[in-house]
Amino acid sequence: MRRRVVVTGLGAVTSLGRRVEDLWKRILEGESGIRPLVGFDVSAYRVRFGGEVLNWSVAGYVEPRDEKKLDRFTQFALVAGIDAVRDSGIDFSRGDPFRAGVMVGSGIGGLGELEVQHTRLLTKGPDKVSAFTIPKLIANAASGQLSIQWGLKGPNAALVTACASATNAIGDAFRAIQYDDADVMITGGSEAAVTHLGLAGFAAMRALSERNDDPAHASRPFDRDRDGFVLSEGAGVIVLEELQHAKARNANIYAELLGYGMSADGGHITQPDKDGIGAAYAMTRALRDARLDPAEVGYINAHGTSTPLGDLAETRAIKSVFHEHAYKVSISSTKSQLGHLLGASGGVELIFSILAIREGLIPPTINYDTPDPTCDLDYTPNQARQRKISVAMSNSFGFGGHNGSLVVGTLRDNG
Q1: Mean pLDDT of all residues in 15-37
Q2: Fewer C-beta within 10 Å: the chain N or C terminus?
Q3: Nearest C-alpha neighbor of 163 from the set 400, 336, 408
Q4: In this model, does residue 150 exceed pLDDT 60?
Q5: Which of 245, 303, 375, 402 is catalytic?
Q6: 174: closest CA among 105, 237, 242, 111?
């Protein structure tokens, strides 16, 4: 019999803040974290805005002597992870370190460090490349550093499935607890790809919105005039626990993680299946895993990146899974406010799904000005809405055709 898994801690770093309580308030108020980029000179770039974490500091989380050993994406993960553990109230020193683990995804890893050291290699020679280069840029650095933080010796992995990375990491952590490989898992995603190469590369693909004159309104999921996603950075990390383990220490339980599904499009490295067949299969598998009927879902935090093809494909996928209920379920894309955090997006968006259930409030899709007749569902346009729900779904779909869906809900009974 599979063990039940609950969420007991939340932590996030985003362009709208790094305290979950404050971030949620700003999300509900419809605030945008998209603005002109200031971290490096973007005057020559096709796209000059994004979701940048400003005034970043790891003071109080990382010793100053250790900061230089960590790429920005690992720093984000550590801060979000430490906040999530603090929020959970768990004391790892009192438990078995082999029963606690970490799974944190990243679509790209230490891109900033790669750029810095490659420049140093070309301008100063191979002997000037930092000894910290490889440990900083590897995509598993965040997961490894979080385990080191508390000496955790249980399951540890780093998922790299582009924009589905955090969702797949959470799904695998969920499985680790379900099947008794661990009692506690720190899990989510982190990304810091708002860099020279990250911005130039995505812009060269014509994947990004080019609304340089109006950054705050650039991300407009499901709107008729959407023209691409907005590149952002940050982290979303949660603490998962086996239900009885959480109850034994009288933990605050936010929600129960009910189901997980994944699939592949198997068609194109960047473009989604036009009918969302792979995405629909991931959603269907998540519902089957949760043993739920589609009509029981009250809210979907959509992948909704603000690309013409992606939003249409997800809309078609939702219709194929939910049928007539597709027009009754509340849907929103919080990427309208935060932009696209790539491999971190699924972690942050699952947090919003949990809070939507807990507080009975559906976050809005801002910048929804002109309805698209081909995207005709209820996307919660521009204003948060009160709605009591007990089950929510969070979707993440990535380059390479990776699809992941998570289902979360209120604790079904006393366990």
Answers
A1: 97
A2: N
A3: 400
A4: yes
A5: 303
A6: 242
Q: Is 340 among the catalytic positions? A: yes
Q: Which two tokens stand for residue 185?
A: 């898992």
**Average pLDDT for 255-277:** 96
Residue with tokens 């009910």: 258
pLDDT of residue 415: 55
What residue type is assigned to position 19 of the chain?
R
Catalytic one among 245, 340, 375, 402? 340
Strand 391-398 and strand 299-301: pairing?
parallel
Average pLDDT over residues 331-358: 98
In the chain, the percentage of residues whose pLDDT exceeds 90 is 99
Note whether 320 and 299 are within 8 A (CB). Answer: no
What's the chain's average pLDDT? 97
Identify the band that residue 414 occupies on the pLDDT scale cut at 50, 70 and 90.
Answer: low
Residue 163 annotated among the catalytic residues of the structure: yes
Query: Looking at 163, 245, 375, 402, which residue is catalytic?
Result: 163
- Contact at 8 Å (CB) between 334 and 348? yes
SS3 string, the chain, reads CCCCEEEEEEEEEECCECCHHHHHHHHHCCCCCCEECCCCCCCCCCCCEEECCCCCCCCCCCCHHHHCCCCHHHHHHHHHHHHHHHHHCCCHHHCCHHHEEEEEECCCCCHHHHHHHHHHHHHHCHHHCCCCHHHHHCCCHHHHHHHHHHCCCCCEECCCCHHHHHHHHHHHHHHHHHCCCCCEEEEEEEECCCCHHHHHHHHHCCCECCCCCCHHHCCCCCECCCCCECEECEEEEEEEEEHHHHHHCCCCCCEEEEEEEEEECCCCCCCCCCCCHHHHHHHHHHHHHHCCCHHHCCEEECCCCCCHHHHHHHHHHHHHHHHHHHHCCEEECCHHHHCECHHHHHHHHHHHHHHHHHHCEECCECCCCCEECCECCCCCECCCEECCCCEEEEEEEECCCEEEEEEEECCCCCC
Q: What is the pTM of this model?
A: 0.98
How many other β-carbons are positioned within 10 Å of the β-carbon of residue 413?
A: 7
- Amino acid letter at 237? V
Q: In a 10 Å sphere around its CB, with 0-12 CB exposed, 13-18 middle and 19+ buried, how is residue 158 labelled?
A: buried
